[in-house]
Amino acid sequence: MTEMMVHPAAAIDRAAKLEEGVEVGPFAVIGPNVTLGKNVKIHSHAVVTGRTEIGEGCEIHPFTVVGGPPQDMKYRGERSELVVGPFNTIREHVTMNGGTEGGGHVTRIGSHGLFLAGAHVAHDCQIGNHVILVNNATLAGHVIVEDHAILGGLCAVHQFVRVGAYAFVGGMSGVESDVIPFGMVLGNRASLAGLNIVGLKRQGFDREQIHTLRKAFGLLFSQQGTLQERLDDVEKMFPGDAPVQRIVAFMRAKTDRSFCVPRNQA
Q1: Which of 43, 61, 120, 123 is catalytic?
Q2: Are residues 227 and 136 in the same domain?
Q3: Which of 15, 109, 143, 191 could join 84 via S-S bond, C-beta 3.0 to 4.6 A?
Q4: Does the annotation count 123 as an active-site position?
């Protein structure tokens, strides 16, 4: 590591581990239990603290606090970790907290995520790959966000909620129930407004796949029979369709929350 990569005004604990290509700007603070992977870039005034691992190629902008202790009244100083995967962009004033005993001690972020200014990831959250949190999106503790989900600005997600893959949460929504994969939810409290059609097209889903998902969506949220019966019917009707089966598996999984449903069913 050359001296030019680490500004002399940065405060880096001697016990921190910095791999090749790391850049640290002036007045950034790097704690003793921090590991920065290859080519990580830490801008000025950012704080990386706690028992935190930052993956290769991440970029952390000014005035973030990454790896701070859990904001949980039950936290008693037990082991708390934050693991951030490779190639994430973490913009200004983002906060990410370590885990607690109740969540396996680890908050985990996947790869290639984008966390815009003021976003918050609380203790024990599990975030997938290619996830976007728009400005001031807020996740409470133990939230699961699957791959390619987008959470709009100023939204708030209740603790233990799951947000499925490719789902979209509208700006300023208050989400207290699980969001199915490919779903779009809006409002306070958020209700299911249909499929995330724009997101599906952007991710390369073709017309036939979207048509199949629409058909499955209509069957799942019809008012005929019980939810269990509808799940059984959809599972049998589309046995080889991976996106549909992903929704079915998500809805069959054990959860502490109900599901976001269309407003006329709420």
Answers
A1: 123
A2: no
A3: 109
A4: yes
